[in-house]
């Protein structure tokens, strides 16, 4: 029986209480494939319980690794018996991060046949030319075969200097995965500096790699012969935390966002303060207090430490009810404003022209049936539902499950009137699941 889930929100509640943040999705998606680089066991803790991670673990399993879930947030990976180097499209189509298996398999075996990735399609092309440039610099022969299989092979990988033409999280990660066991020194210049790059570097170093400079725009990697097992805990998710900070700011209330690294949140905190939201930082938590209408501000998304593009849709919801007119400049992706059409159904007044969105703040949003176009757009629809008067139903929840562990439970826990309902099929009765 086909069924689909919806998230139903009755808006208007203030949010009060504490939300615990899970492990970082974009760190986990790089760290899980990295376990291939050793024949010993890697124990990974604080793994977010989200569908993207489950898919990556399944791919690992089909490659021959033994994957043992200790609990929903802890896994032990034993990759000694990995013997396949092919990841087919029916597996890679689900998520972009599947291409990290190219770097990991290349790093371990010198060969990888991985189908081009799928994943969130928020418009625009998502090329991998910088990944290919990196692999080729290390001495790999890379070709795109029929049915979009990326073939990468090298008898031996040799360290080299690689300048990234554009700051790319994925390319930086993929090159790190291939380079840690290459012979000699690899220097990645114009590298991405996101917290998940640093987390991957720390994980690799705990396996005996020699990665220095992660978090700056020059990463130096001295290749090592062998890497060993380790036990590692993933950093908290900067974007999940930012999503709940913006939700509390938009809905109003008094919410402690717990298990965060405040330094990772600096650009988001700065923008919320600019909007007149009260933000108080503690060692590993941030308190958001909001009891009046936010004021406008301008946003330009940038690679870290700039304002994260993955927070752009969520921030647009806050600005759509702010006092005054705000401008968002999406400088990272070609077109990441598809969600604006959904927000307009709720009464938002946003004009998009290419990479620029002009948002004229309105007093109220009205609940409506909307859909999640992608992961972060889905999170934005939920925030809009919390703020709007009346009922909002968000479809395509499957996108939200890719990157948010128990978003309904976490928001209900601070007083939101939110629930997940399962529809057996559009005509049939709604079943509360
Ligand atoms: C990662 O995607 C994240 N995904 C994205 O988050 C995030 O939006 C993005 O980084 C930017 O922070 C994961 O970590 C799994 P990029 P990635 O390579 O690596 C261009 C989410 O919501 N580019 O940094 O694909 C590219 O077109 C997801 O969690 C090239 O031109 O992003 C883009 O304009 C959505 N050639 C820019 O660089 C390349 O070879 C940044 O892309 C690679 C990228």
Question: Tally of extended strands?
Answer: 25
- Named CATH architecture of the largest domain: Alpha-beta prism
Provide the structure class. Answer: alpha+beta
Strands of the biggest beta sheet: in what spatial order? Answer: 22-23-1-24-25
Note the quaternary state here.
single chain
- Runs in which pLDDT lies below 50 for 5 or more consecutive residues are none
* Overall number of structural domains: 2
Proportion of helical residues: 25-40%
State the distance separating the first and last CA atoms: 15 Å
- Average residue-wise pLDDT: 95
What kind of sheet is the major sheet?
5 strands, mixed
Number of helices: 14
What is the percentage of strand-forming residues? 25-35%
Tell me what you see in this structure.
By secondary structure, this protein is an alpha+beta fold. The protein folds into two domains: 4-21 and 236-432, UDP-n-acetylglucosamine1-carboxyvinyl-transferase, Chain, CATH 3.65.10.10; 25-233, Enolpyruvate transferase domain (UDP-n-acetylglucosamine1-carboxyvinyl-transferase, Chain). It is 30% helix and 27% strand. The chain contains 14 helices and 25 strands. It has helices at residues 25-34, 51-62, 89-92, 100-109, 129-137, 169-179, 195-206, 238-251, 266-274, 312-320, 339-345, 375-387, 397-401, 407-412; strands at 4-10, 15-20, 41-45, 66-71, 74-78, 86-87, 111-115, 141-144, 149-153, 161-163, 185-189, 211-212, 218-222, 230-233, 253-258, 278-281, 285-290, 299-301, 325-330, 349-353, 356-360, 369-371, 391-395, 417-423, 430-432. Strands 22-23-1-24-25 form a five-stranded mixed beta sheet. β16 and β17 (285-290) form a beta hairpin. It is globular and about 65 Å long. The model has no long low-confidence stretch (mean pLDDT 95). Ligand EPZ is lined by residues 25-26, 29, 96-97, 120, 126-131, 166, 168-171, 192, 309-310, 332-333, 375-376, 403.
């Amino acid at each position: 029986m086909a069924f689909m889930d919806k998230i139903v929100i009755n808006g208007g509640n203030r949010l009060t209480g504490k939300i615990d943040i899970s492990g970082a999705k974009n760190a986990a998606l790089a760290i899980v494939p990295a376990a291939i680089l050793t024949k010993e066991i890697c124990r990974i803790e604080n793994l977010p319980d989200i569908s993207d991670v489950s898919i990556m673990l399944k791919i690992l399993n089909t490659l021959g690794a033994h994957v043992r879930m200790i609990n929903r947030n802890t896994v032990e990976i034993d990759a000694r018996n990995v013997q396949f180097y092919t990841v087919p499209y029916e597996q890679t189509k689900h998520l972009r991060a599947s291409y990290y298996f190219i770097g990991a398999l290349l790093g371990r075996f010198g060969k990888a046949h991985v189908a081009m990735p799928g994943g969130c399609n928020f418009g625009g092309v998502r090329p991998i030319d910088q990944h290919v440039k990196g692999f080729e610099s290390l001495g790999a022969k890379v070709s795109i075969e029929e049915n979009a299989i990326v073939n990468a092979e090298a008898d031996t990988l040799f360290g080299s200097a690689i300048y990234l033409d554009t700051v790319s999280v994925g390319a930086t990660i993929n090159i790190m995965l291939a380079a840690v066991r290459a012979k000699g020194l690899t220097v990645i210049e114009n590298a991405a500096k996101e917290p998940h790059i640093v987390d991957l570097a720390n994980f690799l170093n705990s396996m005996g790699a020699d990665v220095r400079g992660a978090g700056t725009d020059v990463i130096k990697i001295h290749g090592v012969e062998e890497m060993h097992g380790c036990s590692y805990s993933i950093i908290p998710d900067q974007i999940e935390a930012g999503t709940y900070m913006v939700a509390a700011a938009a809905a109003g209330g008094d919410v402690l966002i717990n298990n965060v690294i405040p330094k990772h949140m600096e650009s988001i905190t700065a923008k919320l303060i600019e909007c007149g939201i009260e933000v108080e930082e503690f060692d590993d938590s941030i308190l958001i207090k909001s009891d009046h209408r936010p004021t406008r501000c301008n946003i330009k998304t940038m690679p870290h430490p700039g304002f994260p593009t993955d927070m752009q849709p969520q921030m647009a919801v806050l600005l759509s009810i702010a006092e005054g007119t705000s401008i968002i400049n999406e400088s990272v992706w070609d077109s990441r404003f598809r969600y604006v059409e959904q927000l307009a159904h709720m009464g938002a007044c946003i004009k998009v022209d290419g990479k620029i969105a002009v948002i004229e703040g309105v007093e109220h949003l009205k609940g409506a049936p909307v859909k999640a176009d992608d992961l972060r757009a889905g999170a934005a629809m939920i925030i809009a539902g919390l703020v709007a008067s009346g009922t909002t139903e968000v479809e395509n929840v499957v996108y939200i499950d890719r990157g948010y562990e128990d978003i309904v439970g976490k928001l209900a826990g601070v007083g939101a009137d939110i629930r997940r309902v399962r529809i057996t099929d559009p005509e049939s009765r709604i079943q509360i699941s």
